[in-house]
Each structure stands twice: as structure tokens, then as C-alpha cells.
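Q: Make up one entry.
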Amino acid sequence: MQTRTSADMGPCERCGSKDNKATYPDGHTWCFGCKTYGASEEDMQTEQKIVPMNNQNKKDFKYSDISDRKISLDTCKKYSVPVTKEGNMVTQHMYKYYNDAGEHMASKFRRTNDKTFWSEGDLKNCGLFGQNLFNQGGKFITVCEGELDAMSAYELMGSKWPSVSLKNGAASALNNCKQALRYLSKFDTIVLCFDNDEPGRAAAQEVAKLFEPNKCKIVDLELKDANEYLKTGQRQKFTEAWWNSRTYTPAGIINLADLGRSLYEETHNETCPYPWSGMNDKTYGIRTGELITFTSGAGMGKSSVMRELMYHIMHNTKDNIGVLAMEENTKQTAFNLMSVEANARLYIKEIRDQYTQEQLDDWQAKTIDSGRFFAFDHFGSVSNDEILDRVRYMAKGLDCKWVFLDHLSILVSGQEDNGDERKSIDILMTKLRSLVEETGIALMLVSHLRRPSGDNGHENGREVTLSHLRGSASIAHLSDAVIALERNQQADDPIEANTTSIRILKNRYTGDTGVACHLHYDGETGRMTQIDNPFVEDDNE
């Protein structure tokens, strides 16, 4: 298993991530994002080295079983693998390689005490190990990473099906199989039995892409490799894994039948209810791994709703919360949170001055001093990439599972693509969607509405539709939920003027849309509470 601790992390050219590609001391690489293995320069050059064959001093090599590996004498003779011994202990193996004409062109040697390899001859122009034994094609062929594994698989399958190996392990897999493509294509099914580690799994995926659909299968091993099954006497388990090998399909495509009982296992998504029952009835709460867009016209209560959600999540989870409020400083964010606890609009200085320092300290202790809120302390304009980096850091570096970003329009205004707002929103929404998938956070995004045509604007309580979202249809397409706030600010009735209708415009989880609830804003406390529908005659729920 690859780990990050012993590697330098950097950008991946294949998937575009900034810090997922690990470069290890020996030069090989592994991307934890797109699961791509890269061979070291030494590995890539291994096959280029040609050392003349030297048949002297080979008289000590004799055919014998390889007892420590449980490989029989018959299999060693089959694959032309002689060994040297000191007493009863095998000290060296010799693996012979042949060209397409069946000529012995190279040999690899392995010391058993330190597991070192070296080779003689022109290994580059040889076929796979064992290829010379099975030239006629057939129904199945098993391809393993190493010579011992190929011999083990052959024995485990009753010496019935051809089994060959790569020349230099996972690092050479793609090049070796490209070279042997015509040979391997003689067989109806190619079974890849690579090691059960990250390089082995990655190599199997790359090799499988060489062949037409349904021709290649990949064995899912529980143990490290085929020889581990042979050494531990688990022939039946290996044969079951071999026969149950899965047909390769491109990434992102699975046979639903493979889900089995895992279909009923709970996902790792965490759910937090909304503060208001009407919203929970339609959405079943907020889930991590989702992007939720809140939208409204100016003065509809978006800031109040965000404050209530942050406070509610703090009390209903033990998770950290990230806040990127682009139109307020961190002090304002802090006072906004304290205001919900205090039931008073502490974000207004004149109101805050009405309370003692002891009261303020108490509300501070119960909210921001919990250490679970992290805010973006920005000054001046910031690029979209900077915002994305901050969100990623909140998620991965600070363990924030719930992140609030307010608001989208200010991020894209005049920053990219020569002021083309629609294109800028498309780019940013795609990156935000990918970031949610990468980190598993719940991202609460605030977006503005475009001004509708006609006299009846959103400040007059006009019903919001998805088409009113400002800038791009990608906001609706890439969001898991879109939630609109509606209020008639100009109403003569004070209850109506201070009541916000919450309308679900998109709900990927349940599909349930329409008006979810009505929230009354208390001008004295600054709180929003759910009330019964005050617009019975006009509401089309």
C-alpha cells in the first residue's frame, strides 16, 4: 500500500490535482486522486540493459522443487527454472526467457537471501515468462506480476490453464503487454492476476484497456499474490477468486449485480436536520457530499438563514464548520453567530453596546470559542483558485465537514474569461462540484438572482424559478439542491413583509419540490422561526 508519509506530494498532470501525486525516494509515483502509477526511471530502463549471456558456472543449477515456495519439481521443469542449493536450502533461482522463435535469449536470476534480481542476455526482445510454453492460444491465459506467481497460479489451477508473467513487475506491465499483444490476443480471455497492492491494481487497470470489451478479467485477491495462496495451502480460495474474476469495465461503470448486500450498507454521508421541520419533510436534512445552493433577491433573509444553519449545525453535530463570507469580515461573522445564541442582533454595534461584557463573553464562549468555526480572513480581491484552495484546506486540513460560501456572484465578477460571467460561473461551479466529490463536505453556496423582466420584481414577492438564477444553468445542474427564498418586502401587512417562503426548486435526493415552509423574521431578536402558512389563499403547495 502506498503511503504519503515517505513521499513528496505535488501536482498530477493526469487529473489536475495540486497535491495528490506522490513521488517516492526511488523515483516511482502514485496519484491518490486518479490512482495512476508511474514507474521510476530505473524501472523504465531495466529492460534496456543487455548483459551478455554467460553459460559458465551454470553447472551448479539443477532442477528441484522450491520447497519454501511450495512449487513442485514438475512445475520447475515445465517452466525451465533450475536452482542452486546449499544443503537443502535453495539459494538462487534461474528464470529462462525465450524469443518468438523459441530461442533462449535471456535469463533472470534471483537470490533468495536478499531477494535481489539481475539478468543476462537480451531480455528486451524476449516474450513474457512462460510464453514459449503456450504458443497455440486457447480459452484462458493468466498473466501475473512475477515468475514465481505465474508458476504458482499454474499449479493452483491444476496445471490446466496457461500462466505467464511480466518481465519486471508492475512497472513494466503496460509495455510488456503491448509487446505481447498479438500473443495474448490468441486467447479468448486474459485473466490479470497482479499483486494486491496499489501499483498492482493500477497496472491491471492500465493493461486491461489494451483489449476489446469483455476480453480481459481482473482477479481480486485477498492475499498478496498467487504464491501466498500456494504457500498457505488455500487452493480452493484462489480458484474461487480466479473463476469469479471481474470483467474489466472503464472507470465509473459497474455491473449493479456486483453490489450484492453492500447495496443495503449505509453510506458514509453524515446528515444534519434543518432547523425547520418543513424543510426536513421535503429534503430529509443536509448531507455531507452535497452542494446546496441558496438563492434569493436582495434583502430576503439569506444572511439570517445562513446564521441559523451554522448555529444549528454546531448544536447538532460535533463537526467543524468553515465560513467564507466575501462581503463581511471575520468579526462580523463572529458577531452573527453570537447573535443567534443571544437572541439579539449583536452584529449591530448600538445593540451590542446594550449588553455587559460578561454577557458578551458568555455568548462568545458558547459559540465561536468552541474552536469549531473557521472563517476566511480575506482582504481585497481573491482569485477563484485561492477560494478553492481555502475550501480544500478547511476540508482536509481543518476537518470542516460543513462549509458556507457567500456568495457566488462576487467570486466571478470580472475575474476570469474577460468578464464573461456565464463562462466564469460554469468553470467555478464545475470546480466546486469536483471539490465536494473530492473532500466529501457539505457545501452551502449562496447565489444571487437575475432581475426578472416586468414590474413585479423579487422584492415584491415574485415566485422564484430555476430560470431566475443569475449567470448560468450550471448552478442548477451541478447543485444537489437549489433552495429559494421569497418575500414581499413592500407588503403593507407587517407579518407578510417579514415572512420568507422557502421554496425547493431542485431536490436530487427525494425529488420533492415546492414551498417547504414559511419563516418569520423577528426584528428584535434577529431570529427566523417557522410559522403556519400565512398565505393560504395564494399558496399553491
About this structure: The CA atoms of residues 59 and 84 lie 9 Å apart. Confidence is low (pLDDT under 50) at residues 1-5, 41-48.
